[in-house]
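Hey,
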Amino acid sequence: MISLSLPSEDKPQNSMVSIKRLWIWCRRIRHSAGFGVQSPTDFFLITSVMYEKRPYYAYQTLSEEHYDSLLPHYRTKINRLLFRMINYTQPKNLLEVGRDNGEALQYMCLAKKGMDTFAIKSHERQVTLKQLESKLEEWKLLGCLHIGHTLYYKEVFEAALPYMKPDSWMIIGGIHATKDRERWWKELQKDERTVITYDLYDVGFVFFEDKRYKENYIVNFL
């Protein structure tokens, strides 16, 4: 008898959630370990950064911190992924939009010390967009944008897009959290303004390298 199980790290406690994620994991199994990826650059990013298993010293430091679990947040596996992605891409600055417990931002900040960082956590649309506009005008360009737990993800994306350069990239949280977000994510994949996207289920990555052919990847990262 063959036994299938989710990766041991951060298994969901709720049984219904576990069953759903197991089903999704099974559906995505052919997208594991960079299978079918032709680009050497993209294959390296998937296999050597996204799937990297090295125990960074920062993981232990960050695990000792205490965060409010009642506020929106990612699994530890995703936070560590974001740490590795920032460590690999080394963006000049990082702008986060969304209300959460601050854990993801801490992981990313520790991945590149000295990186300019700003978080917009207001739940009000007008305040969010005003703060976003102000910071974008100040920075002139964005290295990395994290669209996290916010209702205004579409407006944030459109406002920030003119400030993204070929080496800039976006982290978009909860791309399958609701039907609307899932529909929007599919629109982004087709959007001519985006070049390379990675669907890791819990989060999506968007890159804007204008000299590359358009690619939309699914990565089994449950």
